[in-house]
Amino acid sequence: MATGRTHRPATRSRGIPEATVARLPLYLRALTALSERSVPTVSSEELAAAAGVNSAKLRKDFSYLGSYGTRGVGYDVEYLVYQISRELGLTQDWPVVIVGIGNLGAALAGYGGFASRGFRVAALIDADPAMTGKPVAGIPVQHSDDLEKIIEEDGVSIGVIATPAGVAQQVCDRLVAAGVTSILNFAPTVLSVPDGVDVRKVDLSIELQILAFHEQRKAGEESNAEAAAEAETAAAVAPPAPRGGTTGGSRKGPDGDVPAVMPA
Amino acid sequence: MATGRTHRPATRSRGIPEATVARLPLYLRALTALSERSVPTVSSEELAAAAGVNSAKLRKDFSYLGSYGTRGVGYDVEYLVYQISRELGLTQDWPVVIVGIGNLGAALAGYGGFASRGFRVAALIDADPAMTGKPVAGIPVQHSDDLEKIIEEDGVSIGVIATPAGVAQQVCDRLVAAGVTSILNFAPTVLSVPDGVDVRKVDLSIELQILAFHEQRKAGEESNAEAAAEAETAAAVAPPAPRGGTTGGSRKGPDGDVPAVMPA
DNA sequence: CGGTGTGAAAACCTTCACAGCG
DNA sequence: CGCTGTGAAGGTTTTCACACCG
Hints:
- 2 copies of one chain form a homodimer.
- Chain A is α/β, with parallel strands linked by helices.
- Chain A folds into 3 domains: 71 residues, Arc Repressor Mutant, subunit A (Orthogonal Bundle), CATH 1.10.10.10; 109 residues, NAD(P)-binding Rossmann-like Domain (Rossmann fold); 28 residues.
- Helices cover 44% and strands 15% of the residues of chain A.
- Chain A contains 10 helices and 10 strands.
- In chain A, the strands form 2 sheets. A 7-stranded mixed sheet of chain A has the order 6-7-5-4-8-9-10, sandwiched between helices.
- In chain A, helix 8 links the parallel strand 8 and strand 9.
- In chain A, helix 1 crosses helix 4 and helix 7 packs across helix 8.
- The longest helix of chain A is centred in the first third of the chain and has 19 residues.
- The first copy, chain A, is globular, with a radius of gyration of 24 Å.
- The N terminus and C terminus of chain A are likely disordered.
- Chains A and B meet through helix 1, helix 2, helix 3, helix 4 and helix 5 of A and helix 1, helix 2, helix 3, helix 4 and helix 5 of B.
- The structure holds a DNA duplex.
């Protein structure tokens, strides 16, 4: 999920598993909250609860970073905040550009969580000349003609794409050519990038579809007559057959040909 | 990552692995694009490229749904679109409420990908009385006092939380109490929900932090004198020691005590 | 005693490679 | 022949359970 290109051996950078890296920000958030309440130490159990994971996993995760706990006591909150921040590279400042200042881009520009953790919105870029110069979240929008110049001058290595899907790949190509090596993509498209560039994507529609899948499952578990009826209806609404096959006979499920909604 | 609660045996609903479910929307998007270009069939290789995965994975994924391909030919595009839609539960309509109509909520309300795939914005809800009645993306905002009524009347089972973090848990509790069983959370907080309720989260700041981690790694690989210098500086800036330990001696990395930036 | 750190086992996911079918 | 569907192998992630230490 981290790469746009098809291949990439999940390079587990310097021994820290990718799954662990993905959880470090969660721990950091929980720790920051504790730090603000001046809690000095925390046990794996408590911190795990606050971060929404289980404690064994948390301890294993931390073990990849080093031995930062004290047996019988727990972890020093401030110390851990520092260690995780350092590991994530948040002790330095990351200038970020946001490309595509529509509704979403504007929302991202105004998002507080940005500045709070080492990220600085270096520029907002949009292709619409009418936007140029308009301040959004206090930052004047710049025209996309200047994209390369902006990236180079500010030494930006992280770009956020919030454009329509149709232009996302072009924008991505320009960002990469100008020196950006990490991209956060909000456009509903698969971006392809050269090796060495990381892409992460956020797609509302995909998340909703995953929820719908589980939701449907739940509905099926409750009533089953209804589920069967639904399958019937669905079949009547839009059952294009595979080319040349008989509609009835050739549909085979993994463990039989019952339409999909039996309870466990 | 799909659940808010700590425990849940990753129930692999009806045999389809969670990882596969998470990719079905990707396949569906690629297939829809092909369908619009009236492409009749597609091979696993082609479709995989369009979806940004490798073909073996795609074939394995499809094998959980059934045998929907034709050997020597490939997959019938229309037929697969239908089968995946059905599997994801997109042949029915899902009313969705969005709670918290700030910048982000408004952006979500206006997001086209919503309507396109079986999801319908049933209501926009905000706690600010000044917002009540104001149309956002063509839909009038309703006051949060009416949350329960709205959920029940429209039979909403999916809720999107785009409120500030501070009130997200309360909103979540109310949604769940009113009957919502799937939640998409944009607030940077861990939500806890009873069993049987699914939570998925989208967190910009977490994504950026993961990118920063890899970005830092890349920087470390290029120049190493610089990396060493950075570690030095960082240590000087904020090195709180674990309670009572000696600062120098007790920090141990997984495979030595070199500060973290050696190349592979 | 209480809680970390970690080998070992289990679960899960991806990739390989090829049998078998159209 | 070409491409799907899938056992088997390999890799990663999670979980268990307990030795060990403050």
